[in-house]
């Protein structure tokens, strides 16, 4: 969804990649979730001060990687492969213009609202350092669900989000640490394959012809996505 400057236009000043806000969700009732108890933490809000980030444990038992962040449906969300979800402020701004409504940091359920880096073009296996200690590794794209659609209350939201192919990225925690708003994002390692989270998202949803190329990301894929890639390598249909 990010647009390049028009040809001949003045070059924009470089923006240091950073975390604009760290967002935490609290439990709230929702009729759009299948979680036991009908609770969701999708509506996240920015918090002040440092937040501890650690690997939460396997899906099904581990929730969010951020201390204090609620995950309602542990069967489908959270765990080590979805410990931290990041979304770009630039993409939120694009949606804000399209939807004609304010979209504050955290409204898409993201833990990190970023600036100055195209989160959806992060490559599977890419590593970021945020703040002095935390190291994250990109694992998979976000796949929209009915809880997301119900929360935003936008018509045909899953189809619109899918068509835009700017899913944001889930990260696993490689080295724990504390983060806060304003922390710089440093790319420690960018793999030389082509499989970004947006590439995988398009292969999984709207462009199945891309599926034979997914194994280029190899073991850097999360468990579920690696299973998909192996199956599609054998039978792309």
List the helices and strands and how they pair.
Blueprint: E1 18-25, E2 28-29, E3 39-40, E4 44-46, E5 51-53, E6 84-88, H1 89-99, E7 112-115, E8 127-130, E9 134-141, H2 146-152, H3 157-164, E10 169-175, E11 177-179, E12 185-189, H4 197-205, H5 223-234
Parallel strand pairs: 6-7
Antiparallel strand pairs: 1-4, 1-7, 2-3, 5-11, 6-10, 8-9, 8-12, 9-10
Walk me through the structure.
Residues 45-188 form the MOSC domain. This is MOSC domain-containing protein YiiM. One of its GO terms (molecular function) is pyridoxal phosphate binding. It comes from Streptomyces aidingensis. This protein is an alpha+beta fold and 237 residues long. It has one domain (18-204): M1 Pyruvate Kinase, Domain 3. It has five helices and twelve strands. The longest helix has 12 residues, at 223-234. The radius of gyration is 17 Å and the shape is globular.
Short description:
With 237 residues, this protein is of the alpha+beta class.
Features:
globular, two-stranded antiparallel sheet, M1 Pyruvate Kinase, Domain 3, eight-stranded mixed β-sheet, alpha+beta, about 240 residues
């Amino acid at each position: 969804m990010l647009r390049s400057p028009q040809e001949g236009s003045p070059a924009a000043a470089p923006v240091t990649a950073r975390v604009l806000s760290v967002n935490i969700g609290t439990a709230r009732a929702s009729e759009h979730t299948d979680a036991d108890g009908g609770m969701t933490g999708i509506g996240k809000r920015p918090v002040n001060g440092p937040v501890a980030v650690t690997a939460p444990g396997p899906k099904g038992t581990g929730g969010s990687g951020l201390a204090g962040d609620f995950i309602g449906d542990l069967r489908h969300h959270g765990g080590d492969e979805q410990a931290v979800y990041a979304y770009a402020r630039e993409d939120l701004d694009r949606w804000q213009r399209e939807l004609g409504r304010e979209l504050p940091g955290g409204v898409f359920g993201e833990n990190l609202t970023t600036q100055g880096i195209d989160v959806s073009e992060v490559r599977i296996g890419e590593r970021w350092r945020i703040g002095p200690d935390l190291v994250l590794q990109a694992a998979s794209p976000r796949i929209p669900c009915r809880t997301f659609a119900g929360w935003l209350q936008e018509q045909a939201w899953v189809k619109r989000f899918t068509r835009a192919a700017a899913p944001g990225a889930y990260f696993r925690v490689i080295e724990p640490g504390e983060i806060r708003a304003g922390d710089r994002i440093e790319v420690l390692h960018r793999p030389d394959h082509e499989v970004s989270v947006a590439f995988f998202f398009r292969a999984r949803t709207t462009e199945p012809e891309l599926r034979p190329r997914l194994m280029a990301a190899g073991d850097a894929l999360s468990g579920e996505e690696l299973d998909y890639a192996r199956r599609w390598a054998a039978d792309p249909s």
